[in-house]
Automatic annotation (TrEMBL):
PANTHER family: SEPTATION PROTEIN SPOVG-RELATED. The keyword Cell cycle applies. Coiled coil: none annotated. The gene is spoVG. It comes from Coprococcus intestinihominis. HAMAP family: SpoVG. Could be involved in septation. This is Putative septation protein SpoVG. It comes from the Bacteria. The keyword Hydrolase does not apply. NCBIfam families: PRK13259.1. Belongs to the SpoVG family. Keywords: Cell cycle, Cell division, Septation.
Length: 90
């Protein structure tokens, strides 16, 4: 699996959510609405989710194992940092 595109949409309002990201996998499959969150231990990603009938949020799409999650997070956060630097330079 190769992440072939990462598109970052920065969030301008105050809060913990810093960006919403879409990724393309193998130029064939897109996952929208991955969130970049600024948490207590730094930036992390939250996969797209929806609210279930019991009030809990459930991921719609997510990695099966921790290695894949770490790789996704690393690549997404790298692109987020690049976008943040571009914004600062403008």
């Amino acid at each position: 699996m190769q992440i072939t595109d990462v598109r970052v949409r920065k969030v301008t309002k105050e809060g913990k959510m810093k960006a919403v990201v879409s990724i393309t996998i193998d130029n064939e499959f897109v996952v929208h609405d991955i969130k970049v969150i600024d948490g207590e231990k730094g930036l992390f990603i939250a996969m797209p989710s929806r609210k279930a009938a019991d009030g809990e949020y459930r991921d719609i799409a997510h990695p099966i194992n921790s290695n894949t999650r770490e790789r996704l997070q690393r690549e997404i956060l790298e692109k987020y940092e690049e976008a943040a630097l571009e914004t600062e330079q403008e």
